[in-house]
Write a structure and sequence with these properties.
Length: 576
């Protein structure tokens, strides 16, 4: 039998002697097969509640501002402490967010606009604001906001769900019909769920059962020319729509599609992953395929994110067997290779984030073991005596770095310390001067940090990130997840086969192979014992069956870059 490659993932169709496979886990498509998916590494403190939407804003000087929402509050990340600061209007909660909805955000120049149907649209000037406030001009309450050309466009309106409305020309607080501000009631198609910028001055309006194109017509009294796209189905999950290379990708009522700005439609999930995602398989499908079905009661978790470093889109979702309030599966699509792969990890939302840059002083403050300083005084002998909440983690003779002390600036530096009691210690060989005013921190341990300092060096570059189930924002910079790849199902005509060994084609030092086998096509496959790759690169086994898939498992934490397939040692068995 020739080499068996790990083929294109198409769980919707039978893979018997085919060019597809139905079973993969935690791998990403490559031109030579599949590569690893790294685990999520937490970076920030926890949000006070479940993540329900967010945005990363930037100034022209690349300063990064990160905002996140919970059910009733808005937060900004403190780029120094990596804690979340409540920036809700007046510190008060907003109206409760619907269970199937998220907050939506858009950036217009220096202004962040946030919307949800239970609140007046909010604004925050990232150069001056300390908290959100009402967007002026009496805009309608809306579930969605987007920028199309020089306009803020609102949709999913509370009072007019079949309407889209936009502000004045470069005037985000003009909503009274002047300066090109206007609205359009859509004749059919149902609720206007969201509008997605398709690039430049064009947006796509996604409705319950239709899609419309809106294009800014400068100088035309209609402002936007809005046309219905023929043969376009409505959207199933409004947060699934995302602009990426080639058009706008989304989960429509019939499955995954791509729509260009001109209205051309490509069904990217048809006969590939649609039936699997929508739970339309029969009982004869492999159990792992049936378990991948989407829970339609949680459309808010199907919030797409694009990887800025690779042409890959992630659609997280809650499976029918997943825990409430979080996604437990992800469908990944490589837009260049036009191939899918499934991932299995949990979280509350995936998004594209630029890490805020951190100074060495900021690292001191967030490293594990950091101690805030509450006082700096003369110890009576001319040395600087530092006060903290507790010295339990310190010992005489420790070498510690002090930073950020106000007033007694001579304390800032690195010192050998002498612990005096439960709350104070002296800086050996120091000289006291000044009057303590505020601030200061005893540095924590950089070795104990949960993310790599290498990641900080590219802090302003965008990367794929996610909120985990503990409400912490993190990046996919951890160890590789456990990966599983399976070939298509093989048969030697009607003859049974003996399988003596599988030779993995991968650069992984540690890999296991096993055989998934069954004797008839309407039976459930069983898996044989795993075999570890030996010093010769061979996974020995002795199995006999009629139908077989070869499976490779690469354990979590293994360093590897590619897996192409297996070379099998197979020959016909002695009987039919």
């Amino acid at each position: 039998m020739p080499r068996l490659n790990f083929l294109e993932y198409r769980p919707d169709v039978s893979d018997l002697n085919s060019e597809y496979t139905r079973l993969l886990s935690n791998v990403l498509p490559r031109g030579d097969g599949y590569g690893p998916m790294r685990s999520l590494q937490s970076f920030t403190d926890a949000l006070p509640g479940t993540f329900r939407g967010g945005i990363v804003a930037r100034l022209p000087d690349s300063t990064v501002f990160i905002f996140a929402a919970t059910d009733t509050r808005l937060y900004q990340l403190d780029n120094t402490t990596l804690a979340w600061v409540d920036v809700s209007q007046n510190g008060d909660p907003y109206g409760t967010l619907s269970a199937d909805a998220n907050w939506r955000f858009a950036q217009f120049n220096n202004i962040i606009i946030a919307t949800q149907k239970g609140a007046v649209p909010q604004k925050f000037d990232i150069t001056t604001s300390a908290e959100f406030e009402d967007l002026g001009g009496s805009p309608p309450q809306a579930g969605d906001v987007v920028i199309v050309g020089p306009f803020v466009v609102l949709s999913d309106l509370v009072d007019d769900p079949g309407r889209v409305q936009w502000c004045g020309l470069n005037a985000i607080e003009t909503w009274d019909g002047t300066n090109s501000s206007d609205f359009q009631d859509l004749a059919d198609g149902g609720r206007a769920r969201c509008v997605i910028s398709a690039g430049g001055d064009v947006g796509l309006i996604f409705q319950d059962s239709a899609v419309r194109r809106m294009a800014w017509a400068a100088g035309d009294e209609r402002v936007f020319l809005i046309d219905k796209i023929e043969n376009a189905d409505g959207i199933l999950a409004p947060y699934s729509a995302i602009t990426a290379l080639g058009g706008v990708y989304c989960l429509s009522s019939r499955g995954f599609i791509c729509i260009t700005a001109e209205g051309a439609i490509t069904p990217i999930g048809e006969e590939r992953v649609n039936r699997t995602f929508l739970g339309q398989h029969g009982a004869s499908a492999p159990a792992a395929v049936g378990a991948a079905a989407y829970d339609e009661a949680n459309p808010q978790l199907v919030a797409a994110a694009g990887d800025p470093n690779r042409p890959i889109i992630l659609w997280p979702y809650k499976s029918q067997g997943g825990a409430e309030g979080a996604f437990d599966r992800v469908m990944a699509y490589h837009t260049t290779l036009q191939r899918w792969s499934p991932l299995q990890f949990s979280g509350e939302g995936v998004l594209q984030v630029s890490q805020p840059g951190l100074t060495l002083e900021a690292l001191d403050a967030i490293a594990p073991g950091a101690l805030p300083i509450t006082g700096a005084a003369n110890n009576g002998s001319g040395l600087i005596r530092i006060t903290v909440a507790s010295t339990a983690s310190l010992a005489t003779g420790d070498y510690k770095t002090i930073s950020g002390v106000g007033g007694v600036v001579a304390a800032n530096g690195s010192w050998t310390i002498t612990v005096i009691n439960g709350t104070t210690f002296d800086l050996q060989a120091s000289t006291f001067a000044g009057v303590y005013t505020s601030g200061g921190v005893v540095a924590g341990s950089l070795d104990a940090m949960t993310f790599s300092l290498d990641d900080i060096s590219t802090a302003t570059l965008p990367a794929l990130a996610a909120f985990d189930t503990a409400h912490r924002l993190g990046f996919f910079t951890g160890d590789n997840l456990e990966a599983e790849m399976t070939t298509s199902e093989q048969a030697l005509g009607m003859r049974r086969m003996n399988v003596d060994a599988l030779w993995p084609i991968t650069d992984a030092d540690t890999a296991y192979c096993a055989l998934q086998k069954r004797d008839k096509l309407n039976g459930e496959a069983t898996e044989g014992d795993e075999s570890l790759i030996d010093a010769d690169g061979r996974c020995p086994m002795l199995d006999e069956t009629r139908y077989a898939r070869a499976k490779m498992r690469i354990p979590a934490g293994t360093d590897w870059s590619f897996a192409t397939g297996v070379d099998p040692e197979v020959y016909p068995a002695g009987e039919f």
